[in-house]
């Protein structure tokens, strides 16, 4: 375990910087995410520490706290971060249609289908159906 304590301190300091230093350029991602004391961190880290390890939050939206931390190799960490981001992008790429009350993929909406009265978004399908209804109404006397 030689060098382990040194590494533990340096890892913890990095985390602290991210979470507590408003001048850090990643602070907005990590604000208020520190929920672990130095001693808790060292006790968790030192028995499993290895050269070049990265501290990862299992749930990337969760805190730095016992139960949400794991050590990964840089390659694993890179892969996971990438997957987490992709999953987030996918989550974001859905909208709720207030007409059919369904959550659908963003491709099924058009930019212009946001209702002007602030009700929300209309999917293409509902948009088409409603404008057809409108046209039919106008045709009938
Ligand atoms: Zn719809």
Detailed description of the structure:
The protein has 141 residues and is an alpha+beta fold. It has 2 domains: 89 residues, no CATH class; 46 residues, no CATH class. The chain has 5 helices and 6 strands; from the N terminus they run αααββαββββα. The strands form 3 sheets. It has a two-stranded antiparallel ribbon with strand order 1-2. A two-stranded antiparallel ribbon has the order 3-4. A hairpin with a 6-residue loop joins strand 5 and strand 6. The longest helix is centred in the middle third of the chain and has 19 residues. The model has no long low-confidence stretch (mean pLDDT 87). Bound molecules: zinc ion (ZN). Zinc ion binds next to helix 5.
């Amino acid at each position: 375990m030689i060098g382990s304590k040194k590494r533990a301190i340096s890892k913890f300091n990095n985390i602290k910087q991210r979470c507590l230093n408003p001048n850090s350029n990643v602070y907005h991602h990590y604000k208020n995410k520190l929920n672990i004391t130095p001693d808790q961190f060292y006790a968790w880290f030192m028995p499993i520490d290895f050269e070049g390890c990265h501290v990862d939050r299992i749930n990337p939206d969760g805190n730095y706290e016992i139960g949400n931390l794991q050590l990964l190799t840089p390659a694993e960490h890179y892969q996971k971060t990438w997957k987490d981001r992709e999953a987030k992008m996918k989550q974001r790429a859905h909208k709720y249609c207030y007409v059919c009350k369904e959550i659908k993929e963003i491709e099924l909406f058009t930019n212009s289908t946001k209702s002007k009265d602030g009700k929300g978004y209309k999917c293409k399908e509902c948009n088409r159906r409603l404008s057809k209804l409108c046209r039919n109404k106008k045709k009938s006397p």
